[in-house]
Design brief:
The protein has 428 residues and is α/β, with parallel strands linked by helices. It folds into two domains: 253 residues, Spore Coat Polysaccharide Biosynthesis Protein SpsA, Chain A (Alpha-Beta Complex), CATH 3.90.550; 135 residues, Hexapeptide repeat proteins (UDP N-Acetylglucosamine Acyltransferase, domain 1, 3 Solenoid), CATH 2.160.10. The chain is 17% helix and 26% strand. The chain has eight helices and 33 strands. Strands 1, 4, 5, 6, 8, 9, 10, 11 and 12 form a nine-stranded mixed sheet that branches. A hairpin with a 5-residue loop joins strand 9 and strand 10. The longest helix is centred in the middle third of the chain and has 12 residues. The chain is globular.
Length: 428
């Protein structure tokens, strides 16, 4: 079996609020030193799959920079081995942007055919999990399937978020419903598919020619295949999380600091590879304390860190307290500041004596009530939080904001600090 692995990595991650505004969702940092894309990439190479194409679209710059030529994953090889980044392009008479998951593959069908592979493994680039795809591929081959979908059981109250499968005793899929309001089955699609190449190319051509299709696997192709073709469900029983919301991202990040986390990042038999930064060792100052936390290289801790994740280069000054928070690269928490239940993006400065994530008021955010409503306060890249500011729960601090964007030092729960673009005066 010759396998082409294709990772769909063009998603925006709109429910991640400002974390997804400037980067694709797979490029969002995770667990200190990683990015989300590292997990499917590492799963692929750990499964001995070395022909990998990553399909990008939304704000791909940090993702492309992170992947580079694939060296951290030993994928810097001559194609058709190694890694390639496939961006949307405008061909003669063709759509420029991907209109759906199936359309992303349709626009790259010629490259797929030229790979000379007989099997295609399609992965989502925005899930946190470890999986040996060789077991899935063997299952696909044994069943002589046209399509195999990797599935797992989810709580009944969560079925509305997924494509839900019903199977017979032979694990053949007999019914498929995309995000049903109610379902008797709890078998959810993980967004992991194995196709026979010829079979997939045929269906992509048919779907591409259908003006009524939304060109999506879950909405269009899979329901049709379930009715007419040999489609099977492969049961997966390991750890798998879609960190598609601020709450899920925060919960999953802090779950990594548990004494025995469900996802073991320290397993030498299944290394999660990433592009590492050259940083000095962690420095714990004379007054520095840390408990139940992940602290990455280059961090300097002179204050207190409790139940938190700190990415490379974070500084916590004397008398400052960081608790129940995710802090990204090169953010500085000045002396005496308190940060609680927050997600702070890169290169933020929290001013001396500031309190971020303060109080018990759980008013949802006025600008994003559906995304920021669980008490987590978030701040975007390079925000500057004033000295002695008091910022409540469910607050949103835009990237690049400065003290000049604040109307006062108190920001009530549910409010936002919006960046005001500077007015550029043109010379006469």
């Amino acid at each position: 079996m010759d396998v082409l692995t294709m990772i769909l990595a063009g998603g925006q991650g709109s429910r991640l609020s400002i974390l997804g505004e400037k980067r694709a969702k797979p490029a969002v940092p995770f667990a200190g030193k990683y990015r989300i894309i590292d997990f499917p990439l590492s799963n692929a190479v750990n499964s001995s799959l070395t022909k990998v194409a990553v399909l990008t679209q939304y704000r791909p710059h940090s993702l492309v920079q992170h992947i580079g030529i694939g060296e951290p994953w030993d994928l810097n090889r001559r194609w058709p081995n190694g890694i390639q980044l496939w961006q949307p392009y405008r061909g003669r008479g063709e759509q420029s942007w991907y209109r759906g998951t199936a359309d992303a593959l349709y626009q790259n069908r010629n490259f797929m055919a030229e790979s000379s592979c007989d099997t295609v493994l399609i992965l989502s680039g925005d899930h946190i999990y470890k999986q040996d795809y060789r077991d899935l591929l063997r299952f696909h081959e044994e069943k002589k399937a046209d399509l195999t979908v990797s599935v797992m059981n989810v709580p009944p109250e969560e079925t509305f978020r997924f494509g839900i499968m019903t199977t017979d005793e032979d694990q053949r899929i007999v019914k498929f419903a995309e995000k049903p309001k109610k379902s008797d089955s709890t078998l959810a699609s993980m967004g992991i598919y194995v196709f026979n190449m010829e079979f997939l190319l045929k269906h992509l051509e048919e779907d591409g020619a259908d003006p009524n299709s939304s060109h999506d696997f879950g909405k269009n192709l899979i329901p049709k295949m379930v009715k007419n073709d040999d489609v099977f469900a492969y049961p997966f029983e390991g750890y798998w999380v879609d960190v598609g919301t601020i709450q899920a991202y925060w919960e999953t990040s802090l779950a990594m600091v548990a004494e025995k986390p469900e996802l073991d990042l320290y397993d030498p038999k299944w290394v999660i590879h990433t592009r590492s930064e050259e940083r000095p060792a962690v420095k714990l100052g004379p007054a520095g304390q840390s408990r139940d936390s992940l602290i990455c290289n280059g961090c300097v801790i002179d204050g207190t860190v409790i139940n938190s994740v700190l990415s490379p280069g974070v500084r916590v000054e004397r008398g400052a307290l960081v608790s129940n928070s995710v802090i990204m690269n090169d953010t500085v928490v000045r002396a005496g500041a308190i940060v609680d239940k927050c997600v702070l993006d890169k290169e933020i400065i929290v001013g001396e004596g500031a309190k971020v994530g303060h109080g018990d008021d759980m008013t949802p955010n006025r600008l994003e009530p559906a995304n920021i409503d669980t008490g987590i306060t978030i701040a975007g890249k390079r925000a500057r939080i004033p000295e002695d500011a008091v910022i409540g729960r469910n607050c949103r601090i835009d990237p690049n904001t400065t003290p000049d964007d604040y109307t006062g030092l108190e920001v009530p729960s549910g409010e936002s600090i919006v960046w005001q673009a500077p007015v550029v005066e043109l010379a006469e």
